[in-house]
Amino acid sequence: MYDLPSEDPEEPGLPDEFHDFQPQLLRETCQPPNYPREEMFIGTDLNLYYDSHHLLWHKRPDWFLVLGVTPAQQQKDLRWSYVVWQEGRAPFLVVELLSPGTEAEDLGQTLRSANKPPTKWQAYEQYMRIPYYVVFDRYQNQLRVFQLMPAQYQEVELSEPKFWIRELELGLGVWLGKYQETEGLWLRWYDEAGNWIETLKEHAQQESQRAEQESQRAEQESQRAEQERQRAERLAEKLRTLGINPDDL
Q: Which residues contact 35 (CB under 8 A, 6 or more apart)?
């Protein structure tokens, strides 16, 4: 069973574990070389308000990135939601993780009902004009990327499940590996050389390995120095047995 219904008929049940872990991995590995952390805002399952004339209209992306907006420096300043007209910037990129029951909406296949807010696709494409819209289906191992060109979204043809975003100097791709002790297919950022950006845990492990290797090198150097000292001591002793004072040499 994917999900149990909520007590509120207008709301689905809580997200699954994948919708918890995957945004964390995207957040950890989103490290563009041309944008420091203090110039990026990352939202996860956060209400996104986009029309000042309709204050209740909002969407709730699984993950989104805004450039040129400073994240909270103090806990008291953490956002309750993201309000586009107050922040002055719309998201640069939105990621939606397909779930049973949301596929049609995520892919723009649903139509706007009369007297209802815009669909998710319309809000991203026509109201906020978000440059990149990424959809990941872990069930089908399918990554789809839509780029605003220039007035509507066009799907990018991918020869492999990877897409390079030149503005960020980073790429998004499907990675097979273990995250949060769970093996599977994950959406993850990679650098210009094609290397997957390290998570915090991987970085700590790499640092630990480097420190261990440095310690081993230092130990080997110490052993070589001790062997050289012992060799010199044996040679000096041999010279003394021959009646030669090594200090005179």
A: 67, 168
CB under 8 Å to 83, separation ≥6 — which residues? 49
What is the distance between the alpha carbons of residues 135 and 160, in angstroms, rounded to a whole number?
Answer: 15
Euclidean distance between CA atoms 209 and 96, whole angstroms: 36
pLDDT tens-digit map of 75-127: 999 999 999 999 999 999 999 999 877 787 888 777 777 788 999 999 999 99
Do residues 123 and 113 touch, judged by C-beta distance below 8 A? no
SS3 label, residue 126: helix
Quote the CA–CA distance of 49 and 241 in Å, as a whole number.
Answer: 92
Would you call 135 exposed, middle or buried from its count of C-beta atoms within 10 A (0-12, 13-18, 19+)? buried
- Between CA 85 and CA 51 the distance in angstroms is 7
Instruction: Tell me if residue 192 falls in helix, strand or coil.
Output: coil
- What does DSSP assign to residue 22? H
Residue 76 DSSP label: G
**For 133, phi and psi rounded to 5 degrees?**
-125, 115
pLDDT digits (tens, 9 = 90+) for 38-78: 999 999 999 999 999 999 999 999 999 999 999 999 999 99
